[in-house]
Amino acid sequence: MLAIKTVLxxxxxxxxxxxxxxxxxxxxxxxxxxxxxxxxxxxPVITPLVGPLPxxxxxxxxxxxxxxxxxxxxxxxxxxxxxxMLSEDPAGEILRLAAxxxxxxxxxxxHGRTGLGRVLLGSVAEQVLRRAPCPVLTVKMPLPAAGSxxxxxxxxxxxxx
Length: 161
Description:
The protein is α/β, with parallel strands linked by helices. Helix content is 35%, strand content 21%. A six-stranded mixed β-sheet has the order 3-2-1-4-5-6, sandwiched between helices. Helix 1 (15-31) links the parallel strand 1 and strand 2 (34-41). The longest helix has 17 residues, at 15-31.
């Protein structure tokens, strides 16, 4: 059986990330593991443009930190650690954090883009899945309700370096 002491949940606050967060919380609860919840944001670029001004860096970080802290596990005994990182390379930051906190499992949502959208936008989930130092559980769509006859839509893969 896999010993899980630390679960890492990278989030972009999307519906798919919320479903992955619920699953990460349940796994952290069941294994008595700590849950590191991370968001990688791009650094705000302030340029002299006409129109609405972009958010100030301090305000931007405060808002994201509050949004991270707003994520609450259903079970109060789940030990959560919010982490906010600013980077132009979300996958690289997630992988760096995974090594730093010595996570045993990464649980993240994926948008499931294919074709041109995937080529143009890339896939953070795919990059993490290919390069992670531990097993990765990806959640493509919101999970079915408890007791539902639908099969779970989560897949787990062991990533080998």
